[in-house]
Structure formats: C-alpha cells, structure tokens
Amino acid sequence: xxxxxxxxxVTYQNDYHHKLRGRLWGALSGxxxxxxxxxxxxxxxxxxxxxxxRDMRAGDERKLIVAAAEEPLLTHVARDLQSDRELNIGEMxxxxxxxxxxxxxxxxxxxxxxxxxxxxxxxxIPPWRCAEYGIDHPGGDTAVFWRPEHTTEPLLNQLEAxxxxxxxxxxxxxxxxxxxxxxELFDSYxxxxxxxxxxQVTERETMTYVLSKWKFxxxxxxxxxxxxxxxxxxxxxxxRNSLGxxxxxxQNHGE
Length: 255
Hints:
Blueprint: E1 2-6, H1 17-28, E2 45-47, E3 61-64, E4 66-68, H2 71-83, E5 86-89, E6 92-99, E7 112-117, E8 124-125, H3 127-130, E9 144-145, H4 152-170, E10 188-200, E11 206-219, H5 223-235, E12 248-254
Antiparallel strand pairs: 1-3, 1-6, 2-4, 5-6, 7-11, 7-12, 8-9, 10-11
C-alpha cells in the first residue's frame, strides 16, 4: 500500500487508468516481468484507484493498493515508489509518504466474508457463447459487454474461466483450478451498479467499457477454495486488470 499526499488542489480524475498503468509498468521495466507488457500474457497484478475518490486539496491523504501473485513483482513496484516519490497520475500530483506491505487472506475453511470490487469489473461474453445464454449478438467477432439483463450465469462463467487462466499461470500445476473443484466461488452476489466509462487503452486509443461493481459473499470451503479466492485478491477478477479494472478487496470477514 502506498500512502499518498496530494501536492496541489485538484479535481479527481476518473480516467486515471492509463497514466497509473504507465507508472507501474515503468517500475517493471528491465525486470523479469517487463516482457509481459507487450504480450497477451496476463499481467499477474491488479491495483486500486487512488482512494477515497474525491476532489483534493493540497496535503489531503489518499491510498493506493497494488496486489500481485508474485512477491518479487511487488518488490520492484515498492522500490520504484520509494526511489521516486513524485507520483503523477494524469493531472493528479501526489507525493509517496510511505510504502507498506500487507497480506490479505479470505480466511481458513469455514470463514465467511465479502469481497467487494474496488474498481469496475470488465466482463465480456464471446460471440460464440451468446446463443448459449440467449443473448442477441450484432454479428461479427466482437464480444458483448455483460449487462444485468444477461443474468449472472454468463458473468460467473466468464469470471471462473478467467480465474482458471490465472491459476494456470501463477499456481502449481498439480493443484486444481476453480473449474476443477465442486462448488461455486461465491455464495451470494449483490450488484452495486453498472456504468460506462471511457478508458484510454493505448496512447492513441480510447474505448468505452461497460463495467459493474459487486459485493460477493463467500464461505471458505477448503484450502483449494481459499487459494482461488486469494488469487482473485492478488490478480483481480475479470479482464484488463493491468488497466486497474477488477481490483477486489475484503470488505469484511469473520467466523
């Protein structure tokens, strides 16, 4: 977690994604993780927005959380933030006051809790699965953004398939992924809101994404389920985590 202070009176920018992503990839430049930047490989990290997300006066405190499946990746990011403490996220200038480490965990088997999406969740349904879900597809090979009228079935299936890919990359191959065990990832689902937001995906391209925010209730069944949920905390849920989408944190948990 980076503890930040605003260096000026500024309006909060909701389109922070591209600039913050650039700083994080810059921290990984020249490291063993650099090659992931221009590849189709999943990045293995996720991050929050600078929060709380509201306008600032100079000196106001904000926080930024970066999560990853691999501890060395976080070490590179922490060293970069400590060596260059000016963090400019678009027109939002911050100073990094402190960098601290913590290890969130959904808890031992039997623990109940809630995961909340700290940033918008991007889920796209591939065209070849639309008919299966009764979703009208406009044609071509463009994926369809998940919307509430599509029901939770395609959303949950896509989340599981995406987390399966992350499990294959970042967990031992002899351990089962989310689709290889009985039981669902979550016990309950509370949709907070859906919204459309323009996201700058490259220097020259901005796309409008339909995103959603959720509260996901869970009861940890066993060690496999615990690993899957913690992987979501480390890598994010859904797509485009390197843009800051799909970051999740533990809202509460207990026995």
